[in-house]
Every structure is written in C-alpha cells, then in structure tokens.
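Kindly inspect what follows.
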Amino acid sequence: MLGSHVASRISQPAVRRGGVRTVRVVNWNLLHARKDNDRRLEVVAKALEAEQPDIVALQEVSQSWLLQRPNRAEVLAQRLGFAWSFRATNGAPKLWEEGLAILARHSIARTVRRRLAGSQPWPLNARQVLIGETPLNDGAPFAVASVHLSFPKGGEVENLEQALDAADFISREVLARGIPAVLVGDLNAPPGALAVRALTTGEILGGDPPFVDAWAAVGSGPGITCTPTNPYTDAPADPPQRIDYVLVLQGPFPLARPVGARVIGNRPAEGGIYGSDHFGLVVDLELDTGRSDERAATLAAANLSARIADARWKIRALRYEARKEISRARLSLARDQSGGCLGRNPAQALRDVTLAKVRTAFTLSARTDNEPLVSAKNLDAAVRTGCGP
C-alpha cells in the first residue's frame, strides 16, 4: 500500500545559518511490533517536535486495521503538520503491514520506489527503497530515499547487492536530474561492511564515491545507533553498533554537504522508555542548488550506473564460480570420504564462499587473475558448514 498525504498544519521552517539554506534530516527505525508501542511513539513524536526537522525518513512503520493501530507515520505527520508518504513492504493489507515512510515539512511532490535485488517475495521479507521529492522554501527540489536493507547470517553480499541496487535507482531518478539528495535508513551494516564501503569509498565501484557518510564527515564519537542495553533489542548479545546512516549524494559537484550530525533518542524517557530499538539520527545539510548543470548531472548518473552494473555483474560471476567450486568439492568428499558430511546448509556454504571471493576480488588489489579466490582449506570448511557430529 502506498499513501501520500498532507497534514492539516504546516510548521515553521527550520533555522537558517547566515543566509545559507540549511536542511535538517532525521532518520529513525521505529521498531514495527514490540511492547509499549504507544508510549514509544510518543517518545519519538516529542523528539521530532524538539528537533524541528524539514524531512523525516522512517523504517519499520506499522499499521493494522485488525489491531486498530493507525499508521505510525500518519500519527507523527499529523503531530508535526507534515506531508507524508508510506510504502508497505511486509505484511497483509488490513491485517498488519510495515514499511517505509517519508515525512516532509512541505508537500511531497513525487514518490518512486523499487524492489531491491535479492529481496524475497512480498509479504515475507520484501526490501525496497522509497524516494520522496519535496520542494524547499524557495521551491527548489530536494530528495530523500528511505531504505531498510537485510543482513541475514553470512549475507553480507546480499546486503551489498541491495545497497548497489538502491544507489542505482537514486542515480537514475535523482542524480540524473541534478537534485540534491540523501540516502538514509537502517542499512543493517557497520561502517566496515561491503555495502557501506561501496557507497562511501572507491574500493568496490572505483572512481569517486557516490555518497558521503554524514556521521563520518561531521559526527563526533562512535555514533552508535543500536546497543544491547536497549530493552527493546532483539540482539542482546550483539555489541553496540552504528548501522543507521544519512548518506549525502555526490555528483559532478556536491549540491549538499553535511555540517552537523547527532544521535537522538539514546537516553530513556520517563519510565525507562526508548522510542525504538534503534536511536534516531539528525543531520544538518547546507545546500547549493545554484550550481546544477543538467548535462554534467546526466553524465555523472550514467557513469555511476555503469560502475554499479559492472560491480553487480562481477558479483554474479563470483557467485557462479562459488557454486561450481562447492559442487566439485561435494562430489570429491563423496568419493574420498565415505560417510563424510557433505554440508547440511548448502545456501550458507554458498554465501560463505561467495563472500570470500567478493572480499578478495574487490579489496585485495595485489591479487592476480591466476590466484585462487578461495583456498582449498576455506572451501572445504564452507562445504562442511552446518555438519553435526
């Protein structure tokens, strides 16, 4: 279900600094279903009121006619007097749905969406990117892409492919038109993960990075957005992590640059209530839309999409190699080790070997084409993944 609406009240614009147009963006994963839903939403609403954002991107936004739970983005939009747009990614209409949302101080003039590579069929585990375009005070357009990536066990390559697919969509829909934009959301990936490195460095795509990580550029401290001490976490054994991002789109020349970044919601409200199992992220941007060059933007978008296509083709080829090597190893084990375990989780073995190949192919520049991407020892270990005694 896709909704696009305007609340009844439009709040005042955010503060400007020295005449330079400043846009405040907030990102927050709301935690779609857990205890204290109403009280948690109130914590988020008060935090947003205090921050006075211009644009808010949300993930795990839930609604349920059966449970008489209104859309949480709608509740927040009405509270702020913002326009809002929602896209369900999981669930069944009327029974229960959760998905992505964008809230904007002014109208939402345009929305587009894409199902991401590797996403499972809705309603099981659909992953999408939702782009919303809003006019600023002077009518200049600004775009925000809200995304929530998956990261299954050993699924770093799938996470990378989804990130590349989202970046390609933004390149075609936004960069090509010379519009300042941010990619924001729960990437489910720490800063060193392949997905984040692909988007913010030249390691995987080559050339200039397509985005700047706002926190890495102007934030202070580790920028933790998930911690095991949060009572709503479903991963109490995990270490504190930074997995939520505001990534600023680059291009032939940056139309937006981060000037401030803060984590919010990282302290409990009265009664020990947090807004979510994630903390919110606030980023201030300075915009320069007067430098837009349509031809340069079109060429930059074509270049980025081509680099992404090359990387995705290479990943598919590496996965194909991994599948063939695993098949050969399983046959060898069957011949040479009677009664030997051939692996009870072939999907996980494929992930492990593919990940090793991708890491080697994209990050070790000293490797030659004649060197093996995965050692025999690692391959044997991958094939044996999941074997019992």
